[in-house]
Amino acid sequence: MTLRTLGTILVALLAGSLLVFAVALRLFEEKFDVALQSIDATYNESVLPLRQIDANTKNIRFHLYAIFMHDRRLDVSTLHQHPITFHFATIASEVASNERLWRTLVARANDAEILALKARYDAFYRDGITPALQAAQGGRWSGIVSPITATLPGYQAFEDVLRDKIDSTLRAEHRRYARIRAWQDRLFLLLLVLVPLVLTAAIALSWRTISRHSAVLEGVNGALERANETLEETVAQRTGALALANEEQARLLDDLRRTQRKLVQAEKLSALNRVVTGVAHELNTPIGNCLVAATTLPELVRDMKAAADKGVARSTFAAYVEQIMACCQLIERSLRRAADIISTFKFLGTDQHRESRQRFELAHLLRAVVASRAGQLSAAGCSVELRATPALELDSYPDCVATVVNVLIDNTLAHATTAGVTCRIAIDVHQQDQQIHLSFSDDGRGMTAEVLQRIFDPFFSTTMGQGTGGLGMTVAYNIVTGMLDGHIAVNAAINEGTQVEITMPRSVGDGREA
């Protein structure tokens, strides 16, 4: 048996003993209360009515004698203060009261003693009270006393029986009360004996169980002492093993850091290689065109000079001039193309617009950018819907914001539109706390997951060689995350359009301004 079970048993025994004791006391208390209530009820329902009938009857006899004393032939007739009508009214009230009391007694008890007692009362009332009352009402003074006197022995016998009935009723109720009280005392004594016996048994059981658990506890304590003797040795061994594991982990962490630095350096070199390759590829065509035109131009000049020395026709001279002009125009276009590529490549840095920080209204700037591209957008069949919070003022770099929006418009024109199919661009701007959320979306062709994964790579384009250099989204990413201190994300799927989400602070940090 466990200590918990022992405690549960002890609590159950104590609670059960107390419950039995309390229930027994409560039951006998209720029986005692019922006995008292029965005695009170018997007294109120039997004894009091009988006593009241006795008192009323005596009062009737008294008032009949008082009526007799109103005889003017008697010397005491003038001593009465109450008129004779008062006595008649009192007698009538007492007679009516007795009738009600008898009806109640007979209805409640209806036993032989009550019926016999009522019969004696009825005989006395018939033979004594009624003739005397009739004589008094008829003014026959001598007829009042004689009936009462004649029935006096019967009335006394009635009173004796009435008293015996009252006494017997009270004695019966007192005997019942005494029996209940005796049973209550005997039960209380029995409980006084049983409760200590139960408690003694519980204590004996507890002592036995505690002794057995003490022996078990001593054995457990001995085992703990023996385990404690070897604990220090075990801790020392595990501490040494943990130290070796920590050294190995530190060594692995150093190796991981070295590997990480090598990977970062390799990634940097790879990115630089991609940038250099892209720049070389983009510059190769315009520079090659310039080289071809530059090498062709001296030959044309020499041929034109030789022809001029020999004398040529005006049409031949004009043909030489056109060829020279064509070479010059090719050189100019190629150099401008190379300059544009270099200018775009410079946007990969984030320091070129630091001097342009100012306060401006974002909605006004966006409307101006859209208006400046209205011709191209209309020619491509694109409509623009601008929804921006009015009077939303930023402390930032307006040129950078305009550049990013222009890059997004260029991407839509180059990749989202299809000939003969309209495209809708939606620009939504709202403020949340101190952050500006700019959403640029179109319902164009969208892009694959592979393209979406490389969208911010420099010199990556699905239309390379068709007038795009693959730097637009790279420039937009660097501007948003660098100059504007924000975040940019792109969501797209094939034939489901493209959505660009830009988040930036309403006021860039002071550290951005240098």
Structure commentary:
Strands 2-4-5-7-6 form a five-stranded mixed beta sheet. A two-stranded antiparallel ribbon has the order 1-3. The two termini are 82 Å apart. It folds into two domains: 3-206, Four Helix Bundle (Hemerythrin (Met), subunit A) (Up-down Bundle); 353-512, Histidine kinase-like ATPase, C-terminal domain (Heat Shock Protein 90, 2-Layer Sandwich). It has helices spanning 3-68, 84-108, 112-137, 142-150, 152-310, 314-346, 362-372, 374-379, 398-416, 449-453, 472-483, and strands at residues 358-361, 382-388, 393-396, 423-432, 435-442, 487-492, 498-505. Helix 1 (3-68) runs antiparallel to helix 2. The longest helix has 159 residues, at 152-310. The protein is an alpha+beta fold and 514 residues long. It is built from eleven helices and seven strands.
CATH homologous superfamily (4th level) name of the largest domain: Aspartate receptor, ligand-binding domain
Strand content: 5-15%
Q: Could you tell me how far the N terminus lies from the C terminus, measured between alpha carbons in angstroms?
A: 82 Å
Structural class: alpha+beta
Which key terms come to mind for this protein?
single chain; alpha+beta; Four Helix Bundle (Hemerythrin (Met), subunit A); Heat Shock Protein 90; 11 helices; 9% strand
